[in-house]
Amino acid sequence: MTIRWMPYLRDKSHPIDVGRLQPVEQAWGVQLPETYKQLVCRYQGMAPEPCVFNVGGAEDVFNDLLTITPIEGRESYSVMRVHAVLAPHLPPGIFPFGRTPGGEYLCFDFRDAPDSPRVVLVTGERSILSVANSFQEFLEGLHDG
């Protein structure tokens, strides 16, 4: 299924150069998946359609892709800001990339596979739930609710 990216934080796409990801990768000490880098450079702050994903025996919604370049007045959507808030409460190796409508975070989990991170959901209680074995698998699993 093809994913369409819809305006969410802004009224249109605000692409960035892939070089803007280097400080994030350096700060986190990871190499982000190429598919993610291509998407976030083009669609940061946007919402996917379809947007539903499976987690455990339930479904949740991928609300929006966090931003690489902060938006004035909406800094709380920045991957760096979200990571700074979450990091003290999570094991090292987990890095956010998206949000759900309920304020939970979709994250890369580099703990077991530094070259191929899994996708996990970090709940409001800071539980870590497995979602997909890779970012590509996560995207392929998005569906209508």
From TrEMBL:
Pfam family name, one: SMI1_KNR4
Domain named Knr4/Smi1-like: residues: 15-141
InterPro entries on file: Knr4/Smi1-like_dom, Knr4/Smi1-like_sf
Protein name: SUKH superfamily protein
Organism: Archangium gephyra
